TrEMBL record:
This is Sigma-70 family RNA polymerase sigma factor. Keywords: DNA-binding, Sigma factor, Transcription, Transcription regulation. Residues 13-79 form the RNA polymerase sigma-70 region domain. Belongs to the sigma-70 factor family. ECF subfamily. InterPro entries: RNA_pol_sigma-70-like, RNA_pol_sigma-70_dom, RNA_pol_sigma70_r2, RNA_pol_sigma_r2, RNA_pol_sigma_r3/r4-like, WH-like_DNA-bd_sf. It comes from Oceanobacillus kapialis. The keyword Membrane does not apply. The keyword DNA repair does not apply. Gene3D superfamilies: 1.10.1740.10, Winged helix-like DNA-binding domain superfamily/Winged helix DNA-binding domain.
Length: 188
């Protein structure tokens, strides 16, 4: 950028800010947290810094750089969502078989179950936990993750089996929520 006739980046950004929005819209990207917009601005900055006037117009170079950076970010996030979905499905596969929960013989040791979870699995469960009441989370934690029986949970929590079943019914209802499923990457 030795050319003294070049405009400052602030001026370039003001003139081309809509270009970033255009590519976000064109690629049909949802950007509630302005991640893609920030990535587009970074791409514009890199394009501004690396621009060589002998190779073409600045606008074309901006379009190329911004679009490709946004596509890269979308692919990266898609891979992350896919990995989280696989982890969630794996958990679900091991925890539930149809309507019956698979339990190891005499297994009520939850610590051993959660120790084997990787970070993405723990992150999914943390998101789920935020959506549930304490009792609903107890049902998920003990019944699904810990593979405990309803009777064991009721005894441990000093309540009735009917209360534990009610926790489970309400938890399942919340877990079917489409907004939650979208956040977990389980629903398109």
């Amino acid at each position: 950028m030795n050319n003294k006739n070049m405009e400052s980046f602030e001026e370039i950004m003001k003139q081309n800010e809509r270009r970033v929005h255009y590519h976000i819209h064109r690629l049909n990207l949802s950007d509630p947290h302005k991640e893609y917009f920030q990535e587009g601005l970074c791409a514009m900055w890199n394009a501004y810094e690396n621009y060589d006037p002998d190779k073409g117009t600045m606008a074309t170079y901006f379009n190329y750089t911004i679009r490709n950076r946004l596509v890269d970010l979308a692919r990266k996030q898609g891979r992350e969502n896919s990995n989280q979905l696989k982890a969630f499905k794996e958990i679900k596969k091991h925890a539930v078989d149809g309507n019956k929960v698979m339990r190891a013989e005499g297994s009520s040791n939850i610590v051993s179950v959660t120790e084997n979870m990787d970070y993405s699995e723990q992150k999914l469960w943390e998101i789920i936990k935020q959506e549930l009441t304490d009792n609903q989370w107890k049902w998920v934690y003990y019944y699904i993750i810990g593979r405990m029986k309803i009777k064991e949970i009721a005894k441990q929590e000093a309540t009735t089996e009917e209360a534990v079943k009610s926790w489970g019914k309400q938890a399942r209802k919340k877990l079917r929520n489409k907004d939650l499923l979208k956040r977990l990457g389980l629903f398109g």
